[in-house]
Structures are given as C-alpha cells and as structure tokens.
C-alpha cells in the first residue's frame, strides 16, 4: 500500500490518528465537542476519555503504527460513538434546528444580490463571491442578519420577513416524517431480518409529493413551498461498525494486536445496527389548510413507498423535543 501522507513516514502513522482519525474516528476533535456541546445542551456524555487514554498504547502493524486500547474498553468505545449519534439526533440534526437552518439559508440567498462587501483592492463582492476573497469573507459574520432586519430597502423585504419569522419563532411547519428503512432477509442468515436503508433524493421527493396534491391545492401551493430534509444518524462510518476498525490488545499479550471478532462473542448488549435515516417534510406557508393538504400528500407518498408516516407537527419549541 502506498503511503500518501506527507510529513511523517509510515512508522509514525499513529500521529495522524490523534486529531482527525480517518481509520476509525476516535480522535480528540470529537472528545472536545462532545464535552462542550453535552455541557451546554444538558445531554449526558457517557464516554470516559480519561479511561481511554489510560489504556491507549501504540503498536506497530504491517499497515502502520496504530493507537490501540485494551480489550475491556470495547463498551467505552461504543459509548463514545453512541454519544455522537445522540448529539446528531437530539441537536445537530434536530428537526427544529434544520428548519431554522433552511430559513436562514433562504434569507441569505434572497439577500445575496443586494448586500455587497468590500474585498481585495476595494472591489465589492456578493456573499456568494466572497469565498474567493478573504478580505470580503472576513466581513461575513452575524451582523448580516441585523443588517437585513434593520434595512427598509424593498429589495430585501423577503429576507427581512424570513429573519422576522425566525426571531418570532414563526417557523416552517413539519407536517411529518418517516424512517427510510425496511427489513430484509440477509444472505448469510435468510431467516434473520436485517435493516436496509433506503436511498431517496430530496428534489425528486419534493416533486413526487407536490404531484400528489389536488388541483385546488396546486393553485395555492408551489413546489418550492415544500421542503424535504433527509437526516442521517450514524456512529460515524455510515452503516459500518467503527469499532471493527480498532485494534485491541489483551492483558496477557500487550504487545500484539487483536481484532474485535477475536475478543467477543455475539453479544445482545452491544449494538447491531449503526446507521438510520429519516425523511422530514416541511411546508413554508402558515395556512393550516395548506399544511393539511401537504400532510395528506406526504402520507399518500409514504403509503406508495411502503413507508410509515409519523406526525412531525412541531414548528417551534424546545430543541430537545
């Protein structure tokens, strides 16, 4: 295998696992935001990083030096990856958070052509052009929202209305959600059902739901009034078990590595699935009748796809709901 990293050789490959671990996702960057965000969100963090460090040691393998840990730390590692899953589900990709994000993005897009920022050599740049001009990019901060809110320029009315809706918690309405998963028989054990995630594209789904609306509803609703968001929750490696990419050592043989399959038997206490996907449908309009039309179209779409629609009627409220 060709060593592609620059700076250190293969014998020092463990150094690349400290800050951003591409091998299995165990790194101090995660520990930092786990501790910070769990504290401020009031979500317990079960991972004991001090214990992990106490048992961590570098062992040399043919594919490079790796940071390994004791075999008894398996549960602690699963706690770490479950903490990641919990933060994404209860905060980062919470439906209210994603609604706020969609509204803010729309407000910025509407303002893009009318808000200009001085860049290099004094040239005025749009927000979308500032990514290539660090002078202009450095001026993109929270004051943009207050500039939009305080302006009386009619060109920024759409943006201003959206920011006002955000500040008054008049948010887009989530009419429903569904889990994009179905049970199938595996090739290895045909009698055992396993979960298979369903791949669906946002744009196609918005169109399909819109097409299921009645002719009367289409006079009031545009396809752009329907927002589809797909939330992916995992242990960090999609459907794979990240702990399978960790090397362990035992008490009686601390200088040689062993894989997880050699340590534990089939345990009912450890997770068996490591990823799930949810599709949420929101509507921009405030009219309750419009919301019911979209809800009905979404439920019909779910029935056609063999999915179960669940209510998602939370347009505002605690981010922990």
Q: What's the gyration radius in Å?
A: 25 Å
CATH architecture of the largest domain: Orthogonal Bundle
Taken from the alpha-carbon principal axes, the silhouette is globular
Order of helices and strands: HHEEHHEEHHHEEEHHEEEHEH
* Chain-averaged pLDDT: 89
Remind me, CATH topology of the largest domain?
Hypothetical protein af1432
Count of helical regions: 11
Q: What multimeric state do the chains show?
A: single chain
CATH class of the largest domain: Mainly Alpha
Whole-number total of structural domains: 3
CATH superfamily of the largest domain: Hypothetical protein af1432
- The amount of helix comes to 25-40%
Distance, first to last CA: 48 Å
Spatial sequence of strands, sheet with the most strands = 1-2-9-10
Share of β-strand residues: 15-25%
Question: Structural class from helices and strands?
Answer: alpha+beta
Explain briefly what this protein structure is.
By secondary structure, the chain is α+β, with helices and mostly antiparallel strands. The chain is 37% helix and 19% strand.
Topology:
Layout: H1 28-41, H2 49-55, E1 57-61, E2 64-70, H3 74-92, H4 95-111, E3 116-118, E4 124-126, H5 134-137, H6 143-150, H7 157-167, E5 173-179, E6 181-185, E7 193-197, H8 202-211, H9 215-220, E8 226-234, E9 248-250, E10 253-258, H10 260-263, E11 275-283, H11 288-305
Parallel strand pairs: 2-9
Antiparallel strand pairs: 1-2, 3-4, 5-11, 6-7, 8-11, 9-10
Helix pairs in contact: 1-3, 4-7, 6-7, 8-11
Structure description:
- α4 runs antiparallel to α7.
- This protein has helices spanning about 30-40, 50-55, 75-90, 95-110, 135, 145-150, 155-165, 200-210, 215-220, 260-265, 290-305; strands spanning about 55-60, 65-70, 115-120, 125, 175-180, 180-185, 195, 225-235, 250, 255-260, 275-285.
- The model is unreliable at about 190-195 and about 315-320 (pLDDT under 50).
- The longest helix is centred in the N-terminal third of the chain and has 19 residues, at about 75-90.
- It is an alpha+beta fold and about 325 residues long.
- A 4-stranded mixed β-sheet has the order 1-2-9-10. Strands 5-11-8 form a 3-stranded antiparallel β-sheet, sandwiched between helices. It has a two-stranded antiparallel ribbon with strand order 3-4.
- The protein is globular, with a radius of gyration of 25 Å.
- It has 3 domains: about 1-90 and about 240-270, Hypothetical protein af1432 (Orthogonal Bundle); about 95-170, no CATH class; about 170-240 and about 275-315, Alpha-Beta Plaits (2-Layer Sandwich).
């Amino acid at each position: 295998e060709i060593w592609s990293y620059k700076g250190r050789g293969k014998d020092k490959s463990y150094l690349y696992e400290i800050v951003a671990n591409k091998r299995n996702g165990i790194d101090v960057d995660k520990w930092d935001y786990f501790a910070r965000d769990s504290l401020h969100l009031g979500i317990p963090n079960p991972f004991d990083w001090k214990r992990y460090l106490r048992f961590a040691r570098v062992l040399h393998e043919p594919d490079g030096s790796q940071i390994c840990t004791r075999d008894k730390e398996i549960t602690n590692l699963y706690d770490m990856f479950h903490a990641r899953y919990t933060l994404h589900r209860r905060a980062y990709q919470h439906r209210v958070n994603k609604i706020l994000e969609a509204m803010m993005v729309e407000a910025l897009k509407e303002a893009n052509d009318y808000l200009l920022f001085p860049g290099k050599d004094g040239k005025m740049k749009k927000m979308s052009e500032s990514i290539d001009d660090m002078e202009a990019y450095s001026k993109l901060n929270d004051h943009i929202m207050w500039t939009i809110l305080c302006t009386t320029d009619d060109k920024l009315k759409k943006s201003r209305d959206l920011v006002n809706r955000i500040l008054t918690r008049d948010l887009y309405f989530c009419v429903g959600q569904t889990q994009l998963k179905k049970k199938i028989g595996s090739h290895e054990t045909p009698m055992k059902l396993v979960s298979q995630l369903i791949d669906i594209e946002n744009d196609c789904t918005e169109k399909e739901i819109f097409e299921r609306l009645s002719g009367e509803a289409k006079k009031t609703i545009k396809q752009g009034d329907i927002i589809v968001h797909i939330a992916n929750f995992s242990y960090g490696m999609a459907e794979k078990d990240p702990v399978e990419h960790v090397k362990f050592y035992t008490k009686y043989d601390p200088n040689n590595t062993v894989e997880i399959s050699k340590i534990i038997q089939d345990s009912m206490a450890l997770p068996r699935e490591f990823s799930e996907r949810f599709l949420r449908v929101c509507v921009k309009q405030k009219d309750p009748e419009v919301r019911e039309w979209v809800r009905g179209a979404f439920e019909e779409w779910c029935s056609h796809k063999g999915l179960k629609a669940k209510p998602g009627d939370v347009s505002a409220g605690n981010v922990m709901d």
